[in-house]
Design brief:
about 35% helix; 11 helices; about 300 residues; single chain; alpha/beta; 8-stranded mixed β-sheet; 8 strands
């Protein structure tokens, strides 16, 4: 009996995570891998904008969620392997380029394609799960779809150009009223490919509009997610929370109208961090990593992945 119990404990042991690397432009790109024995599917988790790490945290921004780690662990319990990536220039991928702002969406997309090639060794079917700006990266990566790419999971992904989304996000805070005219003018310049002298920008906005960040925003603002989505005809899952303060259900509507085949998962009371909203504390899911993922997220993604693999 004791031997049987030990055997059962061994069989029930959780999958373990380990860092893995592939070549990058100037140095290695790194991700955290959870390999699952016998898995037929792998998910690559692509982080959102800014210095967000593979777990879904950005210490410099006060963001502490563990969203991506929790998602990877939840998928492992469903028999799905995963890679959660650090973007070139940040964290484990810091040595991949000298300047983390010297990037483009296409560069991130190519890194993602390279990760698909690696992930194909874990399981024959690979899905890209992009969060927020990571969803745009997933869409762009799929335009030149690598072998074994079975589907896309767009989590809290904008259906509008990011510059317009930025304006809406700022407008939502009445305290930003005095800066809105300048912000609109800045966005218009960047959409037109023009860089402003950072010293000419109102001091409170300067951290958002350094020269390096402006170069990046010129690139990212040039993408229309709806136009790009229309170029992918494979399976897509659109995940949208109705308490998301950054990306609205309307964005999910726009993406769905552009896609040839998609499923939609609406997270009731779900926030941008893919967790359930805490009543009276709209920023709780941004700052408390102990809060669990929305209860529908992992089962919904697992169900979609099974269907995507069948359709492939």
């Amino acid at each position: 009996m004791r031997v049987l119990c030990l055997l059962l404990l061994f069989l029930a042991a959780p999958a373990t995570a380990e860092p893995v690397q592939i070549p990058g432009p100037d140095g290695p790109l790194e991700a955290e891998m959870i390999a699952v024995e016998g898995a037929t599917d792998t998910v690559i988790i692509i982080p959102g904008s800014g210095p967000i790490d593979r777990d879904g945290n950005a210490p410099q921004m006060g963001l502490s969620t563990d969203t991506y780690r929790l998602l990877a662990e939840g998928l492992a319990e469903q028999g799905i392997a995963s890679l959660r990536t650090d973007k070139r220039g940040f964290f484990g991928s810091a040595g991949a380029i000298a300047d983390p702002n010297d990037v483009t969406i296409e560069a991130y997309a190519q890194d993602t394609r390279d990760w698909v090639a690696y992930a194909s060794g874990l399981a024959p079917c690979v899905c890209l799960a992009g969060h927020s700006e990571g969803g745009l990266v997933a869409l762009v990566a799929a335009q030149d779809a690598p072998k074994n790419l079975c589907g896309l999971i767009l989590m809290a992904t904008s259906g509008r150009p990011i510059g317009q989304l930025m304006i809406e996000q700022f407008e939502a805070n009445p305290a930003n009223g005095p800066f809105m005219a300048e912000l609109r003018a800045l966005v218009a310049d960047l959409e037109a490919g023009r860089i402003r002298d950072p010293a000419s920008v109102t001091p409170v906005l300067q951290p958002l509009f350094s020269e390096g960040l402006q170069r990046y925003m010129i690139d990212v603002f040039s993408y229309d997610p709806v136009e790009i989505a229309a170029g992918w005809n494979g399976p897509v899952l659109i995940v949208q929370g109705d308490k998301d303060m950054q990306v609205r259900p309307h964005d999910a509507d726009l993406l769905g109208e552009a896609l040839q085949q998609f499923e939609r998962m609406n997270l009731a009371q779900g926030t941008h961090m893919l967790k359930a909203d805490v009543a009276g504390n709209p920023f709780a899911t941004y700052a408390n990593p102990a809060l669990p993922l929305h209860e529908d997220l992992v089962p919904g993604i697992a169900g979609f992945i099974g269907g995507a693999a069948i359709s492939e």
